[in-house]
Backbone:
């Protein structure tokens, strides 16, 4: 080969590697959609407490917030919905419809509930039952949101960061002082922990840590305009919505406030999202304070959203947005044991309910007796979908449970991807996921009901599977 010819090839090679055609393979694209899922018919059942509430109006609109990302190899959808929890059947159906419309495989979709306690019931729990019409509407709306976001793909840049907001999270499970006897709804006296105990002389100390970290992913258009901001904080919810109202709680207020922090003028062209981290045992109330300040409806929601948005915005100033990062996603299904009631439990529950007469019930032993009869119909095991996503060096795990903060902290520590965060109540609803240590301490989150039924070995299984998935996507 002549020198001339070799030079020509080298020149051609360097031309090819920098040509637009080659660069197109390394283009990151993002698409957004926020679909209004506010119920159109009231009254509607709202779950989140042990008694049902019927909402008569909306304090603010509810949304399914959809982000689709595409690196040229993989296209994934992340959806966060203003709901308390969403059963797997609904989400599987929504994914199937969205997949048919977009070609995105169903195992490349993460759909979660924010866990606001002020949204329509979607899964039968305690004394709340879902409205079938709303289930059908929400299924369609989620699928349509993914389709819209997928249709809206534009070349994008991506970055991420972390911030710390330690003063808005509190561990809500308190150890009681030695000698204090706690009674559970099944007549037992072995609990050592009380959930939301109020300010009391019986309180010893919180039974575990909090996670003050807010992780976020920022997506911009190629010319640097904010397109999406997906945050994650381990806070159950805030509450304090106007009576008999549905509301997106601080999750939707954060989306609004983040848009204003980022100077977004066209809010339709921007998607703010707050996803729930691992907050099964974390809330926003400091039980070491004798008299916390009284607040107007929505006031606390605005305070918390504002604190988190301020911290995110400060950290955002230092974020370097990149034109391209690889996107990887893996999904696995695990089989988890169910704590089924025994014959004696069922007989006791039936006797209690016979004595109490028809509901609705106000006494906790009757409410749990009713749950025991529901649980008697459960299978011995259930399947749970677990996922890991990699965006460059950032990791996202997902769990279908009200996951404890200890699990999230362990995943953050052990994941090879830094930072890593977990989106809980994703891809289904399997109740609380206390660690084995917390099962031993007892308390509300461990009491057997449709809201807490997984066996005590479920948490280590979920945690180790998520860690294995994170390692897999990190190595790809
Ligand atoms: Zn909850």
Residues:
């Amino acid at each position: 080969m002549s020198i001339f010819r070799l030079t020509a090839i080298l020149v051609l090679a360097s031309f090819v590697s920098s040509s637009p055609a080659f660069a197109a393979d390394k283009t990151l694209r993002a698409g957004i959609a926020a679909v209004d899922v506010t119920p159109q018919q009231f009254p509607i059942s709202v779950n989140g407490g042990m008694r049902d509430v019927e909402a008569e109006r909306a304090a603010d609109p509810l949304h399914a917030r959809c982000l689709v990302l595409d690196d040229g190899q993989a296209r994934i959808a992340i959806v966060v919905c203003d709901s308390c929890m969403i059963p797997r059947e609904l989400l599987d159906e929504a994914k199937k419809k969205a997949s048919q419309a977009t070609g995105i495989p169903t195992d490349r979709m993460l759909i979660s509930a924010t866990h606001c306690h002020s949204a329509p019931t979607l899964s039968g729990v305690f004394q709340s039952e879902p409205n079938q019409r709303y289930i059908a509407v929400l299924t369609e709306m989620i699928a349509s949101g993914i389709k819209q976001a997928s249709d809206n793909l534009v070349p994008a840049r991506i970055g991420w960061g972390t911030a710390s907001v330690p003063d808005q999270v509190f561990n809500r499970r308190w150890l009681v002082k030695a000698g204090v006897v706690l009674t559970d709804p099944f007549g037992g006296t072995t609990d050592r922990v009380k959930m939301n105990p109020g300010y009391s002389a019986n309180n010893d100390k919180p039974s575990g840590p909090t996670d003050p970290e807010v992780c976020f992913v920022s997506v911009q258009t190629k010319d640097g305009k904010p397109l999406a901001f997906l945050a994650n904080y381990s806070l159950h919810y805030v509450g304090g919505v106007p009576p008999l109202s549905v509301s997106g709680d601080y999750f939707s207020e954060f989306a609004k406030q983040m848009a204003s922090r980022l100077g977004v003028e066209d809010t339709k062209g921007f998607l703010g999202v707050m996803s729930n981290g691992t907050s099964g045992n974390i809330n926003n109330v400091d039980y070491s304070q004798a008299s916390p300040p009284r607040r107007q409806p929505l006031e606390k929601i605005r305070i918390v959203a504002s604190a988190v948005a301020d911290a995110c915005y400060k950290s955002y100033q230092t974020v370097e947005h990149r034109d391209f990062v690889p996107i990887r996603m893996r999904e696995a299904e695990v089989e988890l044991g169910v704590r089924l009631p025994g014959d004696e439990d069922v007989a006791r529950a039936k006797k209690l309910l016979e004595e109490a007469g028809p509901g609705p019930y106000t006494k906790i032993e009757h409410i749990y007796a009713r749950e025991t009869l529901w649980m008697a119909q459960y299978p011995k095991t259930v399947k749970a979908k677990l996922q890991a996503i990699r965006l460059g060096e950032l990791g996202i795990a997902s769990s279908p449970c009200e996951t404890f903060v200890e699990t999230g902290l362990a995943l953050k520590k052990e994941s090879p991807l830094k930072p890593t965060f977990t989106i809980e109540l994703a891809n289904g609803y399997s109740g609380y996921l206390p660690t084995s240590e917390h099962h031993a301490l007892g308390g509300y989150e461990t009491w057997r009901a449709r809201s807490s039924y997984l066996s005590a070995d479920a948490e280590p299984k979920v945690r180790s599977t998520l860690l294995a998935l994170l390692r897999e996507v990190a190595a790809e």
The radius of gyration is 24 Å. The chain is about 30% helix and 25% strand.
